[in-house]
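ok, trying the design again with the full structure, not the truncated one.
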């Protein structure tokens, strides 16, 4: 009753536009075809997708789809659970090469080569579904393909909300060891970095277990990371030792620490209870504590960088996250410890697809035979329904 005449007219125009979009999408759906042998042959034909190795990607390749091979060792470990299941089901993963991702990669290359002094921290932020996680995974893949050591956390929320087995920390009973989560991370870390791990000699002296076992002199980083196999409950300590060795190794080999949903590690509480059923802070979880050292700047990499992506998911302070980095730092109290100057941190806003990116994404679906070529009117309808948000377009294409 309180709606003004102008507001009412605007609402009617919006509903009419939405209705036309739905009708256009319905027409598009009737022309949709599923993959055939011909479509599959077309999809794998030379020139259909970006053919360069990931390490050679540049600004000249933007708006092209890179069809990553799912059989690449450790590739699936770069992605979160939903994307990993998609990769395993289809045997590949199509990544649209976007300009912000390439600019991040170029910056990391310059840092590793000593061409610029810094900054060595990059934060990806933006609206939900705009590609923060995929951008982070793609950058990590390019770095891995370029000879970097990569320590990747696909989902920090998993550690703060869906933790596996846990027990009191032997070093500090006030902390909790999530040893199954640590073991899973070590398995993925070894798979992703195996060619390099056998070449890096451990510099520190480490002991573990009740018998105070230690590594032999001249042991490799792969041997250190594999200690968990003798006693899975030592996995959290092994992760800490491995991360210390990465800091040391970064003087010789470029290292990327990539943490998705990193703001889950900076909040006042997690959803993990202690043994009195009281929710604990992130620093009380030993596994999180190891990675927080990179976020807080306690661990500094020589040749390399820390790449962080925010989440707008169900975290304790998710309502305080904003679209812009300035508001992000101003409104979220847990971000107060992060550097606030451009000299310390690069902040990259992941936006919805541009018109050209949306066309390239639909071209990828067409080439795979999952949709039929969309007319301009259909693209307009898709824009109304999705705002060209990548995740929304992906869900819509699944419906088609």
């Amino acid at each position: 009753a309180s709606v003004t005449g102008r507001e009412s007219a605007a609402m009617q125009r919006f509903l009419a536009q939405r209705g036309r979009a739905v009708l256009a999408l319905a027409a598009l759906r009737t022309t949709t075809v599923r993959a055939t042998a011909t479509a599959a042959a077309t999809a794998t034909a030379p020139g259909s997708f970006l053919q360069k190795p990931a390490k050679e990607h540049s600004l000249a390749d933007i708006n092209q789809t890179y069809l990553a091979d799912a059989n690449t060792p450790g590739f699936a470990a770069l992605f979160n659970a939903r994307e990993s299941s998609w990769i395993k089901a289809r045997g590949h993963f199509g990544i649209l090469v976007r300009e912000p991702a390439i600019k991040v990669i170029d910056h990391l290359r310059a840092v590793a080569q000593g061409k610029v002094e810094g900054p060595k921290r990059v934060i990806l932020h933006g609206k939900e579904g705009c590609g923060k996680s995929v951008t982070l995974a793609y950058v990590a893949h390019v770095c891995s393909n370029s000879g970097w050591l990569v320590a990747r956390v696909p989902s920090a929320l998993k550690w703060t909300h869906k933790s596996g087995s846990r027990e009191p920390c032997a070093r500090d009973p006030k902390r909790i060891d999530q040893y199954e989560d640590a073991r899973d991370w070590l398995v993925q870390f070894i798979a992703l970095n195996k060619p390099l791990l056998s070449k890096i000699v451990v510099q520190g002296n480490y002991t573990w277990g009740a018998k105070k076992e230690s590594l032999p002199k001249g042991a490799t980083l792969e041997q250190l990371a594999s200690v968990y196999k003798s006693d899975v409950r030592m996995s959290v300590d092994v992760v800490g030792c491995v991360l210390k060795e990465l800091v040391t190794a970064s003087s010789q080999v470029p290292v990327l620490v990539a943490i998705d949903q990193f703001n889950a590690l900076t909040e006042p509480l997690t959803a993990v209870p202690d043994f009195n059923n009281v929710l604990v802070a992130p620093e009380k979880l030993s596994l999180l504590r190891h990675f927080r050292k990179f976020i807080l700047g306690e661990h500094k990499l020589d040749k390399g960088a820390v790449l962080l992506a925010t989440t707008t998911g169900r975290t304790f302070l998710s309502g305080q996250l904003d679209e812009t980095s300035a508001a992000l730092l101003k409104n979220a109290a847990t971000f107060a410890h992060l550097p606030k100057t451009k000299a310390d941190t690069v902040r990259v806003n992941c936006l919805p697809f541009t018109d050209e990116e949306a066309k390239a994404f639909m071209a990828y679906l067409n080439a795979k035979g999952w949709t039929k070529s969309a007319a301009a009117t259909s693209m307009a309808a898709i824009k109304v329904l999705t705002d060209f948000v990548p995740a929304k377009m992906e869900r819509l294409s699944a419906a088609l």
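Keeping the full-length input from now on. The mean pLDDT is 79.
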